[in-house]
Write a structure and sequence with these properties.
The structure holds two protein chains of two kinds. Chain A is mainly alpha-helical. Chain A has helices at about 10-15, 20-25, 30-60, 80-85, 90-120, 125-140, 140-150, 160-170, 185-210, 215-220, 225-255, 260-265, 275-285, 290-320. Chain B folds into three domains: about 15-45; about 50-105, no CATH class; about 110-265 and about 285-310, MetI-like fold (Orthogonal Bundle). In chain B, about 65% of the residues lie in helices and about 5% in strands. Classes of the chains: A mainly alpha, B mainly alpha.
């Protein structure tokens, strides 16, 4: 039972000296039984609510089933759904919007988040308090807050437009963040960056704090410049943490739905229609259940691949 | 971003000037980032005309109209009809009458808020219960394919909610779980249990096995040792995990908007549907948002020490 513990543990000697049947009788359930009793409920729940639906989705993805017409005959269409997805320009447009969103949110959040972490690592008085203040946006509901950002983005009356106008002098009613094709993709990037920069900051801060002081002391003795210390000590040693943050944000934003759905619901037109919004439209507005199941499977596979990379990176960070 | 702002002092203890510059920059960021939240709160205290005035008003006459509109349903009436009514009982009725309207009853907000509470508490209790025992199992026993099972548990959390929602929607329709609190509790439990297992395994891994072994030599069974030795030691971890599960369930929107429409609908899909006469009633939306965010604000402050661990699934500890 105790795989990694040294063999000279008293407990093990006692256990070894006790006959198996007697030990079970005296000690109640065997460890093996307890392990299974403890793990099974979780597994069953996940099987029922995650794996069974997944298998069902796979099965549906090969049919022309429509959830709003349950009486219609369901035909097996083979891989038609998959081929039509891969040749559908709307799907590719959605993937492109998603890529644009994921790319820019990661760039902005990493730059701002790391800078903030680096500043907070100066350990000035009150840094704990200010860290907590900065962290607040990421804990809030993206849906409820995203909904309120619609108000901030109103041309003329919105606070965002007013502040931009105040500092740049342009007319606040001359631009519409969520209404214009050029600006709408940036409106969701701004809100996401506002919400999730603290997340990257927090992980980067942990990375910076993990660098032992003696390395910097040694660098000081060697008269390495601060610039040099930053690039050859700080960045490389914090890198696994930065990567972890990037991966997490990448996965999360790849499946982004709530904030975008409330802020722009994919519009104007389909300029901000990220993959999850397209999926919702196909599945719950056009009711193309078979088609959207196939799209869901494609997204699954993509996220699963990302998750695999993520777990490897995570173990790397852990083993440090 | 470079280190050029630090002076000749050791990096280990930055100079006073560096600290001051860093503090200034951090405060500036914190203030900017607080503007939207500040605006939510003050919008909730404005009257509807004040809320959409240009330029945006920072100084205004506080009004309880936003909160009134949030909690009540109102209808427009003729001034003649209003004149026949008895004088208003409270401030809320008074401001409503001024707009030629009368309160006809409570709105759905309280119900939605209560649904949020029930679903959040229910799913949190279940996922922490399941998560604690599963985490103990994974932490202490040799389980075949342990790493694969743990990865499987984690990967369920990575799935896009909309993709999962398609079959769940069909399944719940068959089972009669659509738009029920039980359905939402089970669903959120399934999503949260992965986080619970990963976080709690980390916390339980940190409790030395020697404690239980000593207790078992003293005659405790494995289960007694788990209950009387491990659980008390893991309390902090369990509480932190519970708060994380609670925050997820509280904030969740995608499943809620697709799988609930009435009876079981929690607050997040409801708040965006608050509309006044002639456009959005932003003070009421602000009021709903403010009330919805306050619990999370408190939790965030309580959770400060464990935040990092929670958001990285236990990968980074401090």
């Amino acid at each position: 039972m105790t795989g990694q513990t040294p063999p000279d543990r008293i407990a093990e000697r006692v256990a070894a000296a006790t006959p198996q049947a007697l030990a079970t009788g005296v000690r109640g359930l065997s460890d093996r039984a307890i392990a299974w009793i403890f793990i099974t409920p979780t597994m069953l729940l996940l099987l029922a609510i995650n794996i069974f639906p997944l298998i069902w989705t796979i099965q549906l993805s090969f049919t022309n089933f429509r959830a709003n017409r349950t009486n219609a005959a369901v035909k097996n269409v083979g891989i038609d759904n998959y081929t039509s997805i891969l040749s559908d320009p709307d799907i590719w447009a959605a993937m492109q919007s998603t890529a644009h969103f994921v790319f820019w949110t990661i760039i902005l959040q990493t730059l701002i988040g790391f800078t903030l972490a680096w500043l907070l690592d100066r350990k000035f008085r009150g840094h704990g308090f200010w860290t907590t203040i900065i962290l607040i946006p990421m804990m809030l509901s993206p849906a409820v807050v995203g909904n309120f950002w619609r108000f901030l983005y109103q041309p003329q009356i919105g606070l965002f437009n007013y502040i931009i106008a105040f500092f740049t002098g342009v007319d606040p009613s001359s631009f519409e963040m969520i209404g214009s094709v050029q600006l709408a993709p940036w409106s969701i990037i701004i809100v996401d960056t506002w919400m999730w920069t603290p997340y990257v900051m927090l992980i980067c801060l942990a990375g910076l704090r993990s660098i032992p002081d003696y390395i910097y002391e040694a660098a000081e003795v060697d008269r390495a410049s601060h610039w040099r210390q930053f690039w050859s000590i700080t960045i490389p040693m914090a890198l696994p943490f930065i990567m972890l943050a990037v991966l997490f944000r990448g996965i999360e934003n790849f499946k982004m739905f709530d904030m975008v759905n409330l802020l722009t619901s994919g519009g104007p037109g389909s300029t901000t229609e990220v993959a999850s919004i397209t999926l919702k439209r196909e599945a719950f507005e056009k009711w193309r259940t078979g088609f959207s199941s196939a799209f869901a499977i494609i997204l699954f596979v993509t996220v699963f691949g990302l998750a695999n990379i993520y777990v490897k990176a995570l173990n790397q960070v852990k083993s440090r | 971003m470079s280190a050029s702002s630090s002076s000749a002092h050791s990096v280990v203890e930055p100079s006073a000037l560096t600290k001051r510059i860093a503090l200034g920059a951090v405060i500036l960021y914190a203030l900017i980032t607080m503007i939207p939240l500040f605006w939510i709160v003050i919008t909730s205290m404005k009257s509807p005309p004040d809320s959409i005035s240009y330029p945006p008003k920072i100084v205004f006459q506080p009004s309880i109209e936003g909160y009134c509109n949030l909690f009540t349903n109102q209808t427009r009436q003729t001034p003649e009809y209003l004149a026949t009514l008895p004088p208003p009982q409270n401030r809320c009725e008074e401001v409503t009458r001024q707009r030629n309207m009368v309160i006809v009853g409570p709105s759905n907000f309280l119900k939605r808020f209560a649904n949020s509470l029930i679903i959040a508490f229910g799913s949190t209790a279940l996922s922490v219960l399941l998560g604690t025992i599963a985490a103990y199992g994974f932490s202490r026993f040799k389980v075949p394919l342990k790493d694969d099972l743990l990865f499987f548990i984690l990967s369920t959390r990575m799935m896009p909610p909309i993709a999962v929602a398609i079959p769940i929607y069909l399944m719940y329709r068959e089972l009669g779980l659509s738009d029920t609190k039980l359905g939402m509790i089970l669903l959120y439990t399934a999503v949260n249990v992965s986080l619970a297992v990963w976080l709690l395994k980390g916390f339980i891994d940190e409790i030395p096995r020697e404690y239980e072994e000593a207790a078992m030599i003293d005659g405790y069974t494995r289960l007694q040792a788990f209950r009387k030795v491990v659980l008390p030691q893991a309390t902090t971890g369990i509480v932190a995990t519970a708060i994380f599960c609670m925050i997820f369930a509280w904030n969740e929107y995608a499943f809620a908007v697709l799988l609930t429409s009435g009876d079981a609908q929690p607050a997040p899909p409801f708040i965006p549907t608050i509309i006044g006469e002639g456009g959005m009633d932003w003070p009421a939306v602000g009021a709903g948002t403010t009330l919805f965010l306050i619990p999370i604000l408190i939790f965030t402050i309580l959770l400060r020490k464990h935040l990092l661990r929670g958001i990285t699934f236990g990968a980074v500890r401090k």
